[in-house]
Design goal:
binds zinc ion; about 170 residues; disordered C terminus; disordered N terminus
């Protein structure tokens, strides 16, 4: 493994070695923690987002970059698990600017969910709170669309009768 040690300006050899030993020690994870290695590209991408949203994150009690990554991973895992629960019943077919096409395997139908006037509407059920709408809310692509459009959507509360256990039915 190649190791690049940059020189510290104005320091003698011993100072250089001590400096880099301390730097390396700083990077060792504390007891009870694990560290992972990612490419500069990935790191910079996440760190850039962290820096830009730092103030909002502090309001949520997130005060460090690792705290930010942890909360991101938890959020993504939750979405992924929600998605997995729906997967046997629903599949994403296509996503475009104002329309998300979903395959409902239970009802054996292709369903179009339209985004109009900041609201989602299911063409099959003529509804704004059916299982298909719930499924669209679990798609990361949906959040990319609304972010690109600068729309803020508050998720509606789904009717109790439509939710059994944790799955939309
Ligand atoms: Zn529907």
């Amino acid at each position: 493994m190649a190791c690049f040690i940059p020189l510290v300006e104005g320091a003698n050899l011993l100072q250089q070695v001590l400096y880099h030993r301390d730097t390396l020690n700083d990077k060792m994870p504390r007891a009870g923690f694990k560290s992972i290695t990612v490419s500069d590209y990935v790191y910079n991408r996440f760190f850039g987002t962290y820096e830009r949203t730092r103030r909002d994150l502090e309001l949520k009690g997130i005060t460090s970059f690792s705290g930010y990554l942890t909360s991101m991973m938890e959020e993504i895992m939750t979405k992924y698990e929600t998605f997995s629960r729906h997967a046997p019943f629903m599949e994403k077919i296509d996503v475009d600017q104002n329309r998300i096409t979903v395959k409902d395997n239970k009802r054996k139908r292709i369903v179009e969910v339209f985004l109009k006037d900041d609201k989602l509407r299911c063409s099959l059920d003529e509804s704004i709170d059916c299982a298909h709408i719930g499924f669209v809310y679990s798609l990361p692509e949906f959040y990319n669309i609304i972010a690109a459009k600068g729309i803020r959507i508050s998720r509606p509360s789904f009717k109790q009768s439509k939710i059994k256990g944790n799955a939309f039915i």
